[in-house]
């Protein structure tokens, strides 16, 4: 099925994306997730599947379904020069394992290269072995560990 990746900028696009983002952020409410739109550098991209109507149906429109999202920003930190930080990366749970995550990660990498980023970086929650295996299979290497303290 053909796909399309585009930046999500409208309220309607975010309305569709929030339930997918909440698969990762299940412990917060929708309002918290929507606040990310106000962050200066946060960009949200969506991978859409396009189900084209059968040929010959003049009045038919393609069905477009959001199946994955990636929230990113361009940053500079001590351990890397300019890089793309992936804050959120979620493939809709029933669609995992179909190659959609690989496609979205490739497109986000392309977007980052176009902005002169030297690396694509992310944090993978401890215990998320399936996620870590996916990222490693996509060529991401463990560089270190993210340590944090609750404040």
Automatic annotation (TrEMBL):
This is GNAT family N-acetyltransferase. Gene3D superfamilies: 3.40.630.30. It comes from Halosimplex litoreum. Residues 3-151 form the N-acetyltransferase domain. Keywords: Acyltransferase, Transferase. CDD domains: NAT_SF (cd04301). Signal peptide: none annotated. The keyword Membrane does not apply. One of its GO terms (molecular function) is acyltransferase activity, transferring groups other than amino-acyl groups. Pfam families: Acetyltransf_1. It comes from the Archaea. InterPro entries: Acyl_CoA_acyltransferase, Bact_Acetyltransf, GNAT_dom.
